[in-house]
């Protein structure tokens, strides 16, 4: 919340000055020089901590999903990798966007699968969803997730021959998002929050 408040204050100041606004919370300033691999792997480096965090949480997600016998267990692992960010603020935002977008997209996928039966109509519709989703990805990740979820779910359901994967996609995404949040808050949380922009 502190980072969000700081972001809002800096945005207002930038508007008053007519200058460029601050980078979004969790964004990293461009480096003065390219970091070396030795710097990235140095003890206590943000990159090393984040790499370890992603590896630990993604492995935990894969093991948990396998233990629960989830049908598309890789969806939970992929969610962890996509949601975890180097900074806690960015991780929380991405988790909320990913889960909300997937739930909305899952509902849309169920409606599309039940109402559009003709492949000649379904193909162009999925093309439009994929096109629009990728176009807005950098603008709003939640909208991106909502638009591409029907594409993945419907294509997977067509290959699986059923309409049961919407629920699996939502549950796997919620599981992956929850694990990513837990990883961001438990594994080196001080280092994550200290990296927020000032």
Report on the architecture of this protein.
By secondary structure, the chain is an all-alpha fold. It has helices at 2-17, 37-40, 46-67, 74-83, 88-115, 119-136, 141-160, 165-186, 189-194.
Map the helices and strands.
Layout (H helix, E strand, L loop, with lengths): L1 H16 L19 H4 L5 H22 L6 H10 L4 H28 L3 H18 L4 H20 L4 H22 L2 H6 L4
Helix pairs in contact: 3-4, 3-8, 4-8, 5-7, 5-8, 6-7
Main sheet attributes: strand count, strand direction, barrel closure:
none
Helix content: over 70%
Distance between the termini: 13 Å
Secondary structure tally: strands: 0
Count of DSSP helices? 9
Short description:
This protein is an all-alpha fold.
């Amino acid at each position: 919340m502190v980072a969000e408040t700081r972001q809002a204050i800096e945005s207002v100041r930038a508007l008053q000055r007519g200058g460029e606004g601050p980078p979004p919370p969790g964004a990293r300033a461009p480096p003065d020089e390219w970091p070396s691999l030795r710097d990235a792997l140095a003890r206590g480096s943000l990159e090393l901590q984040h790499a370890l965090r992603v590896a630990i949480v993604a492995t935990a997600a894969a093991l948990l999903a396998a233990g629960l016998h989830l049908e598309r267990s890789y969806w939970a692992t992929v969610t962890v990798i996509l949601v975890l960010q180097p900074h806690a603020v960015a991780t929380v935002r991405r988790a909320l966007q990913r889960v909300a977008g997937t739930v909305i997209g899952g509902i849309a996928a169920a409606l599309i699968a039940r109402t559009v039966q003709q492949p000649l109509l379904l193909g162009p519709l999925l093309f439009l969803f994929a096109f629009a989703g990728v176009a807005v990805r950098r603008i709003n990740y939640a909208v991106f997730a909502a638009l591409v979820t029907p594409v993945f779910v419907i294509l997977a359901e067509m290959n699986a021959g059923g309409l049961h994967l919407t629920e699996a996609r939502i549950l796997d995404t919620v599981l992956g998002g929850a694990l990513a949040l837990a990883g961001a808050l438990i594994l080196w949380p001080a280092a994550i929050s200290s990296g927020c922009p000032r």
